[in-house]
Structure formats: structure tokens, C-alpha cells
Amino acid sequence: MAIRRIIELGDPLLRCKSREVTAVDQAIETLNDLKDTLHEFQRTHGFGRGIAAIQIGVPDRVIYIEIAGETYELINPEIERQSEEQFEMWDDCFSFPNLMVRLNRSERVWLRYQDRTGAERRLEAEWAFAELLQHEADHLDGVLSVDRAIDLKDSLMTRGEYLRTLGKNPLSTF
């Protein structure tokens, strides 16, 4: 287990499509590193709920999430369905932690994945968890939240300006 460097906006690896994990046991070390890296990011930045393997330079379809007291270790996750109903939000990312991006996300998603034992699982998520799953799944396909900005004129803001202007935590709307 190790804390890994999080690659940042501009690194071409963030734009790569992650490869399917063929042997689940190969993902265990990555999951452990993602957990350690998430905890270090939370300690140093004061926020964070999920991280994709590509963000630590591992182009495998692996995601680690901690939300609402639950832990999710997702290997080969695939969003099977998304609701047509969407909501507007301000998104942030470990790979550009001082930038907020206004975008739309589906209110609900249905996801298929493997757990660390290789068992196939499914889950349904809504609101904060659904948006987080969409954000992390996008990373696996080389898509960043800046690509989903509503517009380039009014949909980008530094974290500091966001807090000064709107005076709230980005997740307080959930």
C-alpha cells in the first residue's frame, strides 16, 4: 500500500481510455493504493470521496469510493443506464482541485461491476452518489468534468472564488 501522486490536468494519461481488468487479483494493490491516496488527499485538501486508478497513473478500470459511511471498490464498472432527469451542479476533481466546473448529471444511475473477490455486482445510486459514479466512470473513458461544462463563459470558477461567491460546500446541495 502506498500514497501515489495524483496526475493533474494536462497530463495526457488522463485522456486515455482505461483497460479492462482481466485478473481481479491484479486490482487489489491498486485498490489499496487508491484508498491510501484518497485518505492523504482528504487530509491535505479537506475534501474527497472517490478516485479512479487512471488518476494515479494506472490505466485500469478500477475505482475506489467512500461516501455516506460506505466503501465501494469497483473493478470494471460500467454504467448500464442513466435517468433522463438531470440536475445542475458544481463539480470538482482531484486532478484539478482548485477548479470548479458547472455541469449537468443524471439524477440516477444503474451500475454493474466486480468486487475484489471477482463477484459481479450491481447497484443503483441517486443524487450525490450517482454524480460521483458518473464522474469516476468518465475518468475511465478519458472524459473530464471540464469536457462536460455547460458553457465556457460561466461554468468555470476557482474553488476560492466559488466559496467566496456562493459561500457553501459544493456538496451542500445534496
Describe the structure in your own words:
Helices cover 24% and strands 33% of the residues. With 174 residues, it is α+β, with helices and mostly antiparallel strands. It has a 5-stranded antiparallel β-sheet. It has a 3-stranded antiparallel β-sheet with strand order 4-5-8. The mean pLDDT is 94.
Q: List unreliable stretches of 5+ residues.
A: none
H and E string: HEEEEEEEHEH
In CATH, the architecture is Alpha-Beta Complex
Strand order of the largest sheet: 1-2-3-6-7
The helicity comes to 10-25%
Radius of gyration: 15 Å
Q: Span between N and C termini?
A: 32 Å
CATH topology: Peptide Deformylase
Number of domains: 1
The H-level CATH homologous superfamily, spelled out, is Peptide deformylase
Main sheet attributes: strand count, strand direction, barrel closure: 5 strands, antiparallel
Mean pLDDT: 94
Topology of this structure?
Layout: H1 27-45, E1 50-52, E2 62-67, E3 70-82, E4 86-93, E5 96-106, E6 108-114, E7 120-126, H2 127-140, E8 156-158, H3 159-166
Antiparallel strand pairs: 1-2, 2-3, 3-6, 4-5, 5-8, 6-7
Task: Summarize this entry quickly.
By secondary structure, this protein is α+β, with helices and mostly antiparallel strands. It is built from 3 helices and 8 strands.
Keywords for this entry:
Peptide Deformylase; five-stranded antiparallel β-sheet; alpha+beta; single chain; 174 residues; three-stranded antiparallel β-sheet
